[in-house]
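Form 7-S
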Amino acid sequence: AASLYGKDLGNHEAALNAYVAALRRDPEDGTLVEAAHKEALVLSDFSSLLDAGADTLEKLDESLVEERVCALAAIAADDAELPEVAVGLLEYGVEHAGATVDLLDRLPGLLEKVGRTESMVEALAKLFEVQDEPAKKLSVGRKLGGVLEGRLEDFDGAIRVYEAMVEVEPSDMDTLDTLDRLYRRLDRHEEVILNCGRIIDVQPERSVELLKQIGGIYLEALERPGDAADAYEQALSFDVRDQECYELLEAAYGATESWETLGELYERWAMAETDMAQRAEICKKLGILQEEARGDVEAAADAYSQALNANTEDEEALDALVRLHRT
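Output:
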């Protein structure tokens, strides 16, 4: 009857009513939904189909609920432009058929459209949990993390999401950069250090830069100069002429009061320095260390002599040598 009304008589309203009536009598026949949808498109009237579809969901076998809900929700959202109805259908599907990717895929966007932010977060969290495809999982995670951070200011929650994303794809730099920003914002220093290590694994060309940052955190924020020195030494191993590394190591070893190690650093630093005037300055530092911190006058005199050899016009080195010989 519906076919005759629609195709032969052109009475699409009667055809739609017939298909809807048939659907109510035989809810499990999915072809009735498809046929009714075609007639509804002609009329731009989807209310009777959506009502019948919703009313008959409880009569369906559980194995058919997911597919039927997805079909009805698509009609409600795309054709009827009724996002609230689509949300209700999808939530029914999740409750009765379980949290599946197909049911959850459109739900967060629809919840956002109707202004239910907290429900959207819950739906995104469920979708992130059940999504198996890495690229899609990361996409969901970015959306979830962005909402938690930007709208709800739940920085700890956002971090948990981004950390889970790292487990999915350890080399995703967008995720690692976001974690770095959040860790620093919250002064979570240990996590910053851990994350810098992850970034080094992905971008080894940034090793020196990041090792210096790690050293700075150990030295200034965590007050662990020994660990800072280890990080700076690793950075120095990439370029033994890196003057900044020597300066950083000078501060770290000075903080540990490891005078012997600091003296050895000055010797390495002087050997690496090609500018003679600068080499003289480093040798003078060694001389002061040997004289004042270690009380080794002979070693101090030797250091001042090296400074004078590097720069014969260095009056401070000459005065220090004269003073030592007089005493």
